[in-house]
Structure formats: C-alpha cells, structure tokens
Amino acid sequence: MDRIHLRQVPRNSQCEISYPVIASVMIKALVAEEELKQLNHRLNRHHNPNDSFYYPHLECRLYRKAFLEKWLLEWKMLLNE
Prior knowledge:
Elements: H1 25-46, H2 59-80
Helix pairs in contact: 1-2
C-alpha cells in the first residue's frame, strides 16, 4: 500500500488528523506523507496569483507543513531502526 485516503483516518474536534490515535508508526508516516503531498499542492496553487485559488495569507498552512515535515522525519527514523 503506497497511498492512504485521508477521509479514513481519525480526526479531532477541529477536523484535523489525530496522529496520537493512530497506533502504527508506519500508518502515521503514510498519512503524514499524503497530507503533506496535498498541503504542498494547495500551497502551490495559493501562491500562484494567476490561479483562481490564489490566497496570499497562508501562515497557518505553512506552520502545519513545518510540523508535518518534522513528524514525518521522526517517524521515518523510527521505521529505519
């Protein structure tokens, strides 16, 4: 399995993915990779002024991206041990 659907993962009350509920580190890494991939896609569209989804204020998404990259690195290191 190299792709996971984000609608199938548990979420908290703010509709964000709840990583502490996911027991497997491998599944956490797969979910984080997919979320990061979708977030990067959205960020690329929002930074392009010619795109209909252009939105100049994306601090929240950039903050989320930084945390996802950090967590993903930690989980991949755990998997490689």
